Amino acid sequence: MLNLHFNPFPELRTRRLLLRQVLPTDVEAVMKIRGNEEAMRYIPRPRAKTTEDALAVVKMLTDGIKEGKSINWAVSNIHNPSEIYGIMGYVNFYPELNKAEIGYMLHPDYWGKAYVPEAIVEVEKFGFEQINLQSIEAKIDPRNGNSRKILLRNNYQFNKLVEKEMTFQDEELDSEYYIKHKSLGI
Ligand SMILES: CC(C)(COP(=O)(O)OP(=O)(O)OC[C@H]1O[C@@H](n2cnc3c(N)ncnc32)[C@H](O)[C@@H]1OP(=O)(O)O)[C@@H](O)C(=O)NCCC(=O)NCCS
Q1: 146, 148, 151, 179: residue to mutate for ligand 1 pocket, most atoms within 8 A of CB
Q2: List of domains in the chain
Q3: Which atom of ligand 1 is nearest the CA belonging to 39?
Q4: Considering only Cβ atoms within 10 Å of each terminal Cβ, which end of the chain, N or C, has fewer?
Q5: 140 Cα nearest atom in ligand 1
Q6: pLDDT at 183
């Protein structure tokens, strides 16, 4: 059975990063990330355009944690946690399958520094050991080569391609699914 109680909020640490809860005081950083066209290119969600939009994102993340429906961390500078590089976590749980969907995004200013590869190790460890996941799924737009690299380098296996899985802003989108099982090690 999955453990979806996240109170107190589980902070995670890596060499360079503090993964902590996203708070309403982070609204400006959330606006920068969720409002960035390049960062949002392959994320089929409306881009934040106003402070209210960003606050709504913070609320959605907070509610998800409270309700045990998702858990997302602010990927922040361990020496200055008010500096947020991005957001990552489990965006969906499938309790009947002991599975979760992982998601991650950084502001482009912080791409190419291997922050997500560093953070994903602790996020997976938390998922397998504390939440009790048996598998972690990732879903990407097939055009998102940077994201595919992260998954393949972290031993996710290609599972399936679903063509025209959804329509977003008048565009039909394909999805590639990747999977990592607990039994394969972390
Ligand atoms: C995918 C993403 C999380 C990668 O995280 P990251 O911490 O930058 O990962 P890495 O540092 O390992 O870089 C991965 C690849 O990104 C590419 N990259 C790095 N800096 C880049 C830049 N400034 N512009 C374009 N691509 C860049 C490189 O090709 C790199 O591969 P390499 O190691 O072979 O050079 C990040 O690109 C991102 O947030 N993208 C937007 C959101 C998104 O699409 N999320 C995934 C949804 S499924």
Answers
A1: 146
A2: 12-137 (3.40.630.30)
A3: 41
A4: N
A5: 48
A6: 80
CA of 112 to the centre of ligand 1 (A): 5
Binding site membership of 104 for ligand 1 (Cβ less than 6 Å): yes
pLDDT tens for residues 62-83?
999 999 999 999 999 999 999 9
HSE-up (13 A, CA, CB side) for residue 41:
11
CB 72 within 8 A of CB 88: yes
Query: Three-state secondary structure along the chain?
Result: CCCCCCCCCCCEECCCEEEECCCHHHHHHHHHHHCCCCCCCCCCCCCCCCHHHHHHHHHHHHHHHHHCCCEEEEEEECCEEEEEEEEEEEEEEEHHHCEEEEEEEECHHHCCCCHHHHHHHHHHHHHHHHHCCCEEEEEECCCCHHHHHHHHHCCCEEEEEEEEEEEECCEEEEEEEEEEEHHHCC
Q: What percent of the chain has pLDDT over 90?
A: 98
Contact 152, 115 (CB under 8 A): no
Query: Which pLDDT value is given to residue 135?
Result: 98
Distance 135 CA to ligand 1 centre (A): 23
Per-residue pLDDT at 44 exceeds 70: yes
